[in-house]
Amino acid sequence: MFIYVLNFLSLLIFEFGDFVEGSKAFDINKEVVEPSKKALVIVDFYASWCVSTDSYIALTNRDIIKAKDLKKNSNVLCFNKNKLTTTSILKSFESQKAGHCKFITTENGRNIKITNDHLFFTKKGWKSAENLRVNDCVAIHPSFEKFKEDISDTTLVDENLILKFLEKRMTHKDYITELKKKGLLPLKTNNKCITILSRLIGSLFSDGNLYIGKNNYREISFTVGTKQDAKEIENDLNILGFKTHIKEKISENNLFGRKFTTHCYGVKCCSTSLWLLFKSLGVPIGNKTNTDYILPSWLMKASKNIQKEFLSGYIGGDGPKPTILLEQRKENKGPCDHLLLNDIEFHKNPKSLKNGLKYAKQLSKLFSNFGIKIRNIFSEDEKYVRKDGITPKIIHLQFTTNYENGFNLCNKIGYSYCKQKQENAIKIGEFLKKRIYERHCWTKKHNKAMQLYTKNHSIKKISEKLNLSYDTVFGWIKGNNKPTTFKHYEKYKDWLKKEYINGGLFWNKISKIKNIYLKSVQIISTKEPHNFFANDFLVHNCGPCKVLGPLLEKLCNEYKVKLVKIDVEQNEALAEEFGVMSIPTVIFFKDGIAKDFFVGSYPEKQIKDLIEKYK
After folding, report:
1. From the candidates 78, 137, 545, 556, which is the catalytic residue?
2. Domain-ending residue, one of 417, 436, 455
3. For residues 284 and 291, is the Cβ–Cβ distance under 8 A?
4. Cβ neighbours of residue 362 under 8 Å, at least 6 residues apart?
C-alpha cells in the first residue's frame, strides 16, 4: 500500500497542472516538483475537520447550539488559564469529506462522534481520538439540557398594553419609541431577547422589585450576593440596551438579640420604558409581601425554554441550595450520601395567604414540567413581628429529595445570578448524573439477568455472559435483591477530590470506543486558545493540524527546507487525487518525486530524522 501510494503520487506530480490554494493560483511543478530536484520540499495537507454536525456546542450565555447551526463570530465557551472564558468562531461550515471517525462514550453516559485526529484534553495533555483508550480520563464541563425555542410569533406586549399602564404627565411616545428602537415592542414569544427577559423577570419575582417614586420616577432593582452576580444582571440589561448602576450594601441587623451583618449588592435600572415593559409582562409592583399577584398566563403557557429561564432567575434568589450530606444507614452498613434540598420560602401578609398558596401551586406546576416534584406546600407563622405590626406567614414549597429531582434541578434549570449556588449545583449535578447512569446500567443488567433466567440459563452462565459475580446474580434471582451497586455508596467528597479538576471541569472515564464512518462533519475554527466544548467534552478546535503546523514551520526554518501548506477544504479535488484520506498528511518530495509521508501527529524527533534522511 505504501509503495502504491508513492508511485501514484509520483505519477500525479508530473501530470497535474495548476490548482488553487485559497485564492492564489499555484503551479505544483514550479513550487514543488522542480525545487525538489535540488532540495527537499515538504508538503503539508491540513484542515480543521471536527465534530459531527449534530454535536452540541456550548455558548457563553449558558445555552448550547447544534454544530451545524454555529455561525462565524458566535461567542463560545472555552477553557484558558484554569478558568472558563470566551472565544469566538473564525469559521464554521459543513464538509462532506469526513471518513473514518470515533464514537466515544464515557461512564457517565456522555458520547461524541468525532474525527480520528481531533484532540481531547486528558490527564496526559492533549490526545487525539485515535490514541484514546478505554479507561482514559477526558475533561468535560456539564451543560444544561437543551429545550426547543419558541418559534411562534404570539404577541405578549403591544403598544396598546403599554398605554394602559401610563399615568398622567408620562410622555407615552418617548417610551414606546425607545422600546421599538431596541426591538422590544411589539414583544413576541420568538423575540431574540425573550430568554433574557424571562430570566430577569424570575429574579424580579424573588429578590427584585418594581418601585414607584414621586414625580413619575420608576426604578427596577435587584439584590444579589456578590459583585459578580450583579455584573451578570448588568450584562443582561446591557444586552437589552439599558444602563445600570451597581452599589455595594452593608447593613447591621438585630434579630431576637442576635446581631449580624449582611453584605450584598444592588443593581438599579431607572428606565421607565423597561419598567413599563416588565409591568405589562405581569411583574408585581412594590412590596410583594403585601401585594396579591400570580404568575402571568403567558408564562404558564410558554415554551419550556422560556419557563426554564424564569425558574433559573427565580431560584437564583429564593431557590433551594442543593447539598449532599453523609447520613448513617441502618444495620451498621456505614454512612451514605444523602441529598438535601431546602424549601423555597416566601413571606405573605396573612390577608394574602390564599393568594400566596395559589402562587405556590403555579410554581409547583412549572417545576413539574421539568420532572421536578414538589411533595408539599404549606404555611406557618413567622417568629417575629414586622415593624408595621404584622406577623407574616411563611409559605413553603418542599422538594422531593431523591437523586432524580436533584439532578433535574441542577441540570435542567440551574441558577442564574447566583455564582455560589450555580458552582455548587454543577458539582452536585455531575455527581448525581454519574450515580443515576450507574443505576440505569445496573438495572439493565438486572433485567437482562432475569430475562435470561426465564429462558433456562443457569446462574453461572448468566454471570459469565454479563460479566457479573455469581453472588450478585444469585442474590437477584434467588434472594429477590434490588439492583443496587456498591458504586452508589461512593462518598461525594471522595468523588469530588478524584474527578473535579478546577474552574468547572471534571474528569470522565471512557467506557467505550467504537469505529464509525461519518459522511460529513462540521469544521470549526476558533480564536485563541483554540478550544471549545462539544457535547460537554473539552476539545481542540483543529486537532493535530494546529499542533503539527507550527512544529513543521519551526523545523523547516531550522533546516532551511521549503514548506508548502495545502488546505484540503480549498483544494478537495487535489486532495482526492493525492489520495489524502486523513488529516494532516505530510509528504516529503526529493528528486522530483514523493519519497516518504506520514499521517496524523508525529513526534518531533521522528520528523527531524525524516528531514535529515532526505535533505
Report:
1. 545
2. 417
3. yes
4. 294, 295, 300
Burial class (CB in 10 A: 0-12, 13-18, 19+), 268: middle
> Do 520 and 610 reside in the same domain of the chain?
no
Q: Are residues 408 and 554 in the same domain?
A: no
CB < 8 Å & 24+ apart, contacts of 387-390: 390/349, 390/350
Distance (Å, whole) CA 241 – CA 528: 29
- The domain total for the chain is 4
Other Cβ atoms within 10 Å of 138 Cβ, number: 24
Within a domain: 149:
no
Query: 3-state DSSP call for residue 10?
Result: helix
Give the range of the structural domain holding residue 451, as residue numbers without chain letter: 421-499
147, part of any domain:
no
| Cα–Cα distance for residue pair 343/324, rounded to 1 Å | 15
Active site residue 542: yes
- pLDDT range class, residue 544, cuts 50, 70, 90: low
pTM for the model: 0.82
Q: Tell whether 60 is covered by a domain.
A: yes
pLDDT digits (tens, 9 = 90+) for 577-612: 667 766 678 989 998 888 898 887 788 999 999 999
Q: Which residue has the cell 413539574?
A: 368
Q: CA separation (Å) from 471 to 240, 455, 461, 462, 528?
A: 62, 20, 13, 11, 54
Cell of 340: 438535601
Cα–Cα distance for residue pair 153/163, rounded to 1 Å? 21
Same domain, 427 and 413: no
**Residue 325 belongs to a domain:** yes
- In the chain, the percentage of residues whose pLDDT exceeds 70 is 88
- CA atoms of 574 and 97, how far apart (whole Å): 13
Q: Where are the alpha helices (DSSP H) in 316-352?
A: none
- The residue among 587, 590, 613, 612 whose CA lies nearest residue 599 is 587
Query: Are residues 452 and 377 part of one domain?
Result: no
* Separation CA 63–CA 77 (nearest Å): 10
Are the C-beta atoms of residues 370 and 320 closer than 8 Å to each other? no
Instruction: Give the pLDDT confidence of 233-251 residue by residue, as tens digits.
Output: 999 999 999 999 999 998 8
**CA nearest to 335, candidates 497, 496, 490, 487:** 490
78 labelled catalytic: no
Last residue of a domain, one of 499, 532, 564: 499
Q: How far is CA 50 from CA 163, 262, 544, 545, in A?
A: 52, 49, 11, 11
Could you say which DSSP state residue 337 is in? Answer: E
Q: Backbone phi, then psi, for 171, in 5-degree steps?
A: -80, 95
CA–CA distances in Å: residue 593 to residues 34, 458, 571: 10, 65, 20
